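Try this one yourself first.
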């Protein structure tokens, strides 16, 4: 049977159909009506970009030119332009999509360098060789093949490039790839303030999956150094004191219940206990660490002993080693190894000055990052016949607390006779009241991770403090994947979480409220 419609009914149905079509089109244009309108990034795309970045040296003579060239080539492929400044930073401006031109500028930021740890016995040159990720060690975790993963910066670069390539709805965007974060932070220090003229900045340097970190610790770095007098060796037996295999990590203001073992502290305590016991050993060398802002992974010292002091010194060292081994972990080594007797040592007077200086800082209530408000870290010691120097950082969530701790160290100067000088003051900022940007990023991140996201005050010194100085009104937030045992040869990341930060940013950009002040 054929149903015939009169002209009036046909017109009505046609109008209804047109209304439905227009509604669908408008919903798709706004991107607000359904979750499916937010384009997402597949994990394999992040992983592929990440692997490509690991083939490029991001330290040494080839840095930052090689990685900057890679970033610029990727940006050019997208039809955009990149600018490189004199400090080695790369800046990319991405125009807003149609209809979103009036939104405030969002800045995406990450650093381009990464420190690479290498296992003993592995032939690897971080300045020339590609990092080889081993994704087959287990189903989810990605490890290096005898090295750390260079994960922090590399994942950040891969994330930002994929966000720019994928996002179909966003306000004005700027990507800032900063140089030298794991060195002297020269990139952010010398970045022109005009590049920080946005409303909010999302950094990819966070390391707590599902957490939006806000703020950065304040810090002052200190140095003590003296010239020492070399003298001829008198003893007959020499030993290398070794404390190695500890996770080298950023010094941080953290919970007192967490174990924080500094190998410099282990050897300092052994040497100080031996002096207190009346053992007149000679000290040839004491070295460990790289800079004030990192807890060393290894420290060694060379002592020279006479026959009658040897057994007693060995027992004192072993007693100290026993105290630390429980917190040291399976990978750590605390031992003494006999070695050829060096020709020179430093005078006992100079050795005592250096040990008094070190022990004074290690005896502080804030040493080894064991206080929730502040921390003190001996990050580098270098003592040899002719010279002694040591770098220390004092960090805290309040600049006044940091200044108070620094002022209290004058007693160490008096006791040791070594002058303490301030070498750098690193800016920080406290957590500010959550504005709409923080709330929106938390909501977006939580939906991607599949559980409620939260905010946390960042406990470490960060290059973000310098960026905040360039624009005190800039809302700065950090997100990232969880990186286990960061900057160690056992560093790993969960491959299933690689795309989470990128998709959280896409969702944030899609849902950003144009009324944000």
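Now uncover the answer:
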């Amino acid at each position: 049977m054929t149903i015939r419609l009169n002209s009036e009914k046909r017109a009505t149905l046609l109008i209804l159909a047109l209304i439905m079509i227009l509604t669908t089109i408008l919903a798709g244009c706004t991107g607000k009506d359904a979750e499916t309108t937010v384009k997402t990034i597949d994990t394999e795309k992040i992983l592929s970009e990440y692997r490509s970045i690991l083939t490029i040296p991001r330290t040494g003579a080839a840095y930052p030119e090689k990685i900057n060239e890679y970033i610029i080539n990727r940006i050019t492929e997208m039809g955009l332009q990149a600018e490189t400044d004199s400090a080695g930073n790369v800046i990319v401006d991405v125009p807003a999509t149609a209809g979103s031109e009036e939104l405030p500028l969002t800045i995406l930021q990450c650093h381009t360098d990464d420190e690479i740890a290498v296992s003993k016995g592995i032939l690897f040159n971080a300045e020339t060789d590609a990092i080889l990720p081993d994704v087959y060690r287990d189903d989810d975790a990605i490890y290096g093949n005898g090295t750390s993963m260079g994960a922090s910066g590399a994942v950040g670069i891969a994330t930002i490039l994929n966000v720019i390539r994928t996002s179909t709805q966003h306000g004005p965007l700027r990507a800032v790839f900063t140089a030298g974060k794991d060195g002297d932070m020269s990139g952010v220090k010398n970045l022109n303030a005009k590049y920080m003229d946005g409303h909010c900045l999302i950094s990819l340097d966070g390391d707590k999956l599902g957490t939006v970190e806000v703020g950065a610790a304040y810090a002052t770095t200190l140095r003590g150094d003296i010239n020492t007098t070399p003298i001829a060796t008198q003893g007959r037996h020499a030993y290398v004191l070794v404390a190695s295999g500890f996770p080298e990590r950023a010094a941080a203001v953290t919970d007192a219940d967490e174990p924080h073992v500094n190998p410099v502290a282990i050897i300092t305590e052994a040497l100080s206990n031996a002096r207190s016991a009346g053992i007149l050993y000679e000290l040839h060398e004491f070295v460990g660490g790289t800079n004030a802002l990192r807890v060393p992974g290894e420290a060694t010292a060379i002592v020279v002993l006479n026959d009658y002091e040897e057994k007693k010194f060995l027992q004192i060292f072993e007693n100290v080693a026993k105290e630390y081994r429980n917190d040291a972990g399976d990978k750590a080594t605390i031992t003494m190894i006999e070695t050829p007797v060096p020709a020179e040592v430093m005078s006992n007077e100079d050795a005592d000055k250096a040990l008094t200086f070190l022990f004074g800082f290690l005896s502080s209530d804030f040493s080894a990052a064991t206080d929730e408000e502040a921390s003190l870290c001996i990050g580098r010691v270098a003592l040899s016949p002719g010279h002694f120097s040591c770098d220390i950082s004092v960090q805290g969530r309040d600049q006044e607390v940091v200044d108070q701790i620094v002022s209290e160290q004058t007693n160490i100067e008096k006791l040791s006779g070594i002058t303490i000088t301030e070498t750098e003051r690193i800016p920080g900022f406290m957590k500010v009241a959550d504005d709409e940007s923080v709330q929106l990023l938390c909501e977006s991140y939580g939906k991607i991770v599949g559980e409620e996201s939260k905010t946390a005050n960042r406990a470490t010194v960060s290059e973000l403090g310098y960026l905040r100085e360039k624009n005190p009104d800039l809302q700065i937030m950090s997100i990232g994947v969880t990186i286990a045992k960061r900057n160690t040869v056992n560093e790993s990341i969960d491959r299933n979480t690689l795309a989470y930060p990128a998709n959280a940013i896409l969702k944030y950009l899609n849902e950003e409220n144009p009324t944000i002040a």
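Discussion: The chain is about 30% helix and 25% strand. Residues 7-30 form the longest helix (24 residues).
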